[in-house]
Amino acid sequence: MKNKDLSCGNIKKQLLSMTWPMMFGMVGMVIFNLVDTYFIGKLGVKELAAIGFTFPVIMFVNSVALGIGIGTSSLMSRNIISQNKSTVKQMASRSLLLGILNVIVVIIIGELTIEPLFKIIGADDSLIPMIKDYMIIWYTGVIFVVIPMIGNNIVRATGNTLIPGMLMVLSATINAILDPFLIFGLGPFPEMGIKGAALATVIGRSMGLLFILTVLIKKYDLLTIRLGKVREILITWGKVLYIAGPATITILVSPISMGVITNLLAKYGEYAVAGFGVAVKVETFALMAINALSSVLVIFSGQNFSKFRYDRIFKALKYSSLFCFFWGIFIFVLSHIFADTIAEIFSKDFQVITVIKNYIKIISLSYVFLGFLSISVSIFNGINKPLPSVLFSSFRMIGAYIPLAFLGSWLLGLAGIFWAAFVTNISIGIITIIWLNKTLKIMTKRT
Description:
Helices cover 85% and strands 0% of the residues. The protein is mostly helical. It is built from 16 helices and no strands.
């Protein structure tokens, strides 16, 4: 097992060498989402709307897994260069067990609540059968989604981001290849429609599960069946959940709020939900570089926090902020040039196209500040201070975005909902990065 020591060395090179493989992987995952959306869009607006309704729920489940992954990554990055190998192996194995128990709960609750949950979100009776077709298959394969997420974070904690990136590309590629065959029934495959999209996702992620388990066992020797006493397992879970709990809440705030926003959009018609669902996935593509950098900052700040190298965390924040600024401006320019072209790729319906391009053009300038929020939240988690992440992320969605969305809808109609996100991203992004700077200065003085 080889671990990178990030508490010394060239900061720019370290961040770059760890970020580009993650970005490579995220490109794969985002392309998988867009390919999914593209082929489902070929089935019709109703199918596209059905997938739009599933998005907040899938985000919710992913958020739980990602929260545990972030907690695991933070814990291991603070211990991996100082603790012995057997201790680190137990940390990794206990974290995976925690993820498996969460999967069991998700499957049971998810399968039993599909119809009532999606009716609450705003799906009408004509969409419920399609949503059921998709979600029953997706829930059945949710273990293939959750475990690779946690496994990826374990590998990242060693300083290796190339393998997690490769895993994401592998899953995405398999999914993208299978999509047209299973959705439209090409060759020997049956025509499954929206069920085929869900099955392609499950198969792609199952290959990812086999890949990450092989890496953890064969390459890094990071898994063991000797988990220790129950009390020791619970202590490790407590340490993971200290970060994972707030991190999960931070991430969960977004899909819960998206459910509220989707319900608000449903009042404008299926075209609004369909267009919004596509636009949000395009947004994920636009933010992939920032998200890749953010995932790296948890590990980088965690290792430097363990060595009291706050000066290095300060410099990493400075470099990351500059990157967010230039990347955000770059995306803003591209969005305004290609908004119409992007929208027309996913739908031929004029109303859906209008929603997509309006969202892209309005929101894109705020990505600079959304990037500030993302990197700040990651550093807070890395330095073992998860509560500010919860505070700012929760206030962004619940305290600002949702109230402003209802106000914007009342004043400006559908576009007002998008302007609400624009204002929220800018204001919360500025506040969060200022707060992080002050926190790091206080920690430096105390040290």
